[in-house]
Amino acid sequence: MNFNKDFNILSSGINYLDNCATTLKPNSVIEALSDYYKNYSANAHRGDYDMSLKVDNKISETRKKVARFINAKDYKEIIFTSGATESLNMIIMGYFLNRLKPGDEILTTKAEHASLLLPWFYVAKKTNAKIKYIDLNSNLEVTLDNVKKAVTKNTKVISLAHVTNVMGDIRPIKEIIKYAHENNILVVVDGAQSVPHDTVDVSNLDVDFLAFSAHKMLGPTGLGVLYGKEKLLKEMQPIITGGGMNAFFDSLMNVEYKDIPDKFEAGTPNVAGIIGFSKAIDYLNELGMENVHKYEVDLKKYLVSKLSKLKNIIIYNKDIPNGIVTFNVDGVFAQDVAAYLNKKGICVRVGSHCAKTLSEVLGVKNTCRASLYFYNTKQDVDKLVEALDNDNILYDSL
Amino acid sequence: MDENLRKSIILEHYSNPINKGLVNDKKYVKINMNSSSCIDNLDFMVKIENGIIKDARFDGEACAISTAASSIMMNLIIGKKIEEVEDIIINYEAMINEESYNDKLLKEACVFDQIYKQANRKKCALLPFEGLKRILSQEKE
């Protein structure tokens, strides 16, 4: 399939391989944003006139569409946020900060993104709960056995990414959740790298909380989703209060919040973003998430088979079935590799990828990451491999 | 400057950097420069006596450009008065930002006169001089 007509950047000659960071946006999403701003840019919650009612209806439609996309039981379980980071902060600060007691244990791993670890660090410091890390196996993966070993009678919550953003390893989330629930432990999952790339079914997984971002799945920046089970969301406190989320308040400080999802959406929502996101989900539904996943897995296999032939390349995650390839060029600092590839119009990401504790176990601080999406082609991969098939990368980076 | 010569000077400083490695000496002012937009992470330490840079050193993990720029900076500043060094910094920043500058002051640092063509690497070339500026302003306080 040729996606050039839907994504302008694809025909610009730029080889975009940084899809874990953000994805390109199809014209349908951009046109929906533009249509809102040009033709009916009213605020939400002001259904007194037609244009505003249209906005309310669009938001409500999108909420239902998102619920179907991840198979939530009820659209009220879908909260719009500014992104996965805000979703995680809202869950951790709004649900767990008031519940954890000194000595309670929060179970996570050293391979997590800052957006998950730092709110937990904050809560652990405030409550004197303990952060404990699940041991990673020799492939830096989380196994159910290691989860079982790490769980104690004090474990209250397990929090980790479904798919990590550095190595791209896929966690056995369903098994972990089942085991956690048998032991009265809640599970908070960062879905930022899984929801955009494969089918994620919250009912089947039975996950308690899930966070993800729209911009990593063709949608606009500044928008994310917080999914939580209805019962838990009703118990959760909003960390942001204000207009649109209260049912009543008076000068004596009596305040009554609205029901979910409104309770968590203070202020004017990201109306344009929500409207654009609706089109992003349409686009992905049209493709089918199984197909997106299968295509990425096959394209990665192709990339790995070609890269493996180059003597100067070290690949850290050859066998993980998704679109993420983490590598280094022997003897060349990752930043210099990226600068060299940039000269050839190839966009890859370097660094610790916001997972700074991972270097403690990986043994390498910095890596290059090429992350693929369904619109990348074998030609894109060939260009990358051709560029890396060079003994003078450092010299040519200058 | 010829492109090959420019690249070979940068690579020479990257492979054999001047004064790389820190010393344990309280007379030095020390600073960490941890770039927020890239992965360069360098420490700098400078010993100043009677308004003169007596010694300067650096260490850490960084790309070829910021390592070479640090090494070249060591050569440029050791033995100079603070006012002279401030002048060098102003001229260096002007060069990186494509403004007019005095190349005689910058000597070997002129190898970075083309860095503006790689906009994403300007911050790498500037990093050691940013660190030096912070050290000098700390010294003034």
What do these coordinates show?
The complex is a heterodimer of chains A (398) and B (141). The longest helix of chain A has 20 residues, at 50-69. Chain A has helices at 27-39, 50-69, 84-96, 114-127, 144-150, 173-182, 202-205, 230-235, 271-287, 289-307, 334-343, 359-362, 378-388, 393-397, and strands at 15-16, 78-81, 105-108, 130-133, 155-161, 186-190, 209-213, 224-228, 246-249, 255-257, 313-315, 324-329, 346-347, 349-351, 367-371. In chain A, helix 1 runs antiparallel to helix 9 (271-287), helix 3 (84-96) runs parallel beside helix 4 (114-127) and helix 10 runs parallel beside helix 13. Chain A has 398 residues and is an alpha/beta fold. In chain A, helix 4 links the parallel strand 3 (105-108) and strand 4 (130-133). Chain A has two domains: 8-22 and 288-397, Alpha-Beta Complex (Aspartate Aminotransferase, domain 1); 28-286, Type I PLP-dependent aspartate aminotransferase-like (Major domain) (Aspartate Aminotransferase, domain 2, 3-Layer(aba) Sandwich), CATH 3.40.640. Chain B has 141 residues and is α+β, with helices and mostly antiparallel strands. Chain B is 46% helix and 18% strand. Chain B has helices at 3-15, 64-77, 82-96, 103-106, 122-140, and strands spanning 28-34, 41-49, 52-61. Chain B starts with a helix and ends with a helix. Chain B has a single domain (3-140), classed as Sufe protein. Chain: A.
